[in-house]
Design brief:
The protein is built from 13 helices and 20 strands. With 485 residues, the protein is α/β, with parallel strands linked by helices. The protein has 2 domains: 29-325, Inosine-uridine Nucleoside N-ribohydrolase, Chain A (Alpha-Beta Complex), CATH 3.90.245.10; 385-484, Immunoglobulin-like (Sandwich), CATH 2.60.40.10.
Amino acid sequence: MKSGLVWALTLLVCASPVSAAQPVTTSPETSTGKTRLFVLTDIEADPDDTQSLIRLLLYANEIDIEGLVATTSVHKKSAPAPASIRYVIENYAKVRDNLIQHDPAYPSADTLAGLVDAGQPIYGMAGVGEGKDSAGSQALIAALERPDPRPLWVTAWGGPNTLAQALHTIRATRSPQDADRLISKLRVYTISDQDDSGPWMREQFPGLFYIVSPGGYGAATWTGMSAVVANFDNTTISNTWIADNIQQGHGPFGAAYPDVAYGMEGDIPSFLGLIPNGLNAPDRPDWGGWGGRYALRTPAREETDPDGFTGGVPVPPETRPIWTNSDDRVTPFRKSDFGVAIAPMDRSYSGFRETIWRWRNDFQNDFAARMDWTVRGPAEANHPPQVRVVTPARIKVRSGQHVGLNAFGTTDPDGDSLSYQWFEYPEAGTCPATATFSGADNLYERGFTAPEVDRKCELHFILRVTDKGSPPLTRYARVVATVSP
């Protein structure tokens, strides 16, 4: 997210045993391991790239970062700033000894510094073509060519022309079969279109996996990160919260986190969905997660807010289906002072930004806890619950069948008390009707009755487990039920 746009977006125990459900041999595509990530950033166009990079490095134990490339964008048309990436890594170096007390998987600062490169100091497609390779585009091709079966995620926080150049070179220098093999490994998420190379890539490489909200920033899913939501607690995106939980009293890494200028960390939705938290399913953007939920479709040009703020990037019609905006209907839950511990609010919200902000308090608290890790030992800081679900991750049920969902055995590494919530995520599923739950909302074991259907479809159930540490931390599990008539 960039440039001179300032906006305000306000916008009981179950009756049947678990064995009643027939397990399937496969499991959901929920991320449980590390993903590979290559970052393109127009750092210094806006303080939010520095903010986002600080957060990203706190997850470098759980994401394999393979490139950090400084680029241009419509808001920074020349002079990529790799030195600013190195500055963040230098401050990471000052706290890494503390971080590895929590997880020895945190990479060394030298390893991270060795990943820093720059793209062409030229805006957009003017920097793409024969003879326009850069250290950044060459590093990206080298990452793709590594004998690693995992996909390579490329996230563009600014202009993506370094990726465009890599694709141009691959097509020009590889056989069609080899080019297709390399391109099939790519997973791209760009924060809107911040130069004119995004539409070119989507047209020229129709098989390229691409997540984007094209057009005006007002029509972008990523704005749910900092959207101020009416009649909702927005505390965790306030400047006071940032100061208290990130910037102050958290050593040199927290002190390096700059104040908000145009919007808070608009870039982080591009990698939030890669964090292995039990909810995220990177290769299934339609399943939803911390980074939002997206549908594979061809958006109409008018819905992309083509006359809204784009930084001057043209908004052509899309030429093929892409992963783009999709709506969720969200009824937030609140804590109750008496009786059942949680209860739904008396209003619901619908929209594409909701696919991100519905999880916002969870991922903001997670960020705050990791910043604590930079200055506190393991006995003084909070760590997330370890979720265990007895129910298989995929189950088969029949219309009208009653089935149990059971999370017995879930634990917390710090010995904290745990709160539970099982709920259905209708938008992630394909059934025309929802399930009927039995039992209170906050039981670790609940039952549901499958709806009557006339065709096979899927229901998605999410378990949300939150500890009572400080800050409270949340992890999830997902159960996918295939319902047959």
